[in-house]
Amino acid sequence: MKYEFSAPLWMWRSDKPDATAAWYFLSLPFDVSDEIDEIAGGGAGFGSVRVEVTIGTSTWCTSIFPSAGQKTYILPIKKQIRTAERLAEGSACVVCIRVL
User: What global pTM score does this model have?
Assistant: First the structure.
């Protein structure tokens, strides 16, 4: 299955005082997340689901993860992609995602 949607890039930081790393994610729309959950049947380890993602001219394989806080799947966006596509926190991203 293939899905296309737009979502803002958001940043997560650990609440530990010595943590310096920040992680960037996109939250999948609830309807897309629900459909993927039905197809994937809960996913693999930690409920992850393998996907192929395209944003702009960048295409890569990764996993989406269920987020209790977001109540949907979240898609990690690594620095290489953020740099190549000139994405910053709050950037609206047009995403094409295919479940593998």
Answer: 0.84
CB 40 within 8 A of CB 85: no
Measured CA to CA, the distance from residue 78 to residue 95 in angstroms comes to 14
Instruction: Write out pLDDT tens, residues 22-50.
Output: 789 999 999 999 999 888 776 555 788 99
- What is the CATH code of the structural domain delimited by 2-13+22-99? 2.40.30.100
Q: Which residues contact 10 (CB under 8 A, 6 or more apart)?
A: 24, 25, 26, 27, 89, 90
Domain map (residue ranges) of the chain: 2-13+22-99
Q: Reduced to 3 states, what is the DSSP secondary structure of residue 32?
A: helix
The candidate with the shortest Cα–Cα distance to 12, out of 22, 20, 21, 2, is: 22
Kindly state the tokens that stand for 12.
Answer: 């997560």
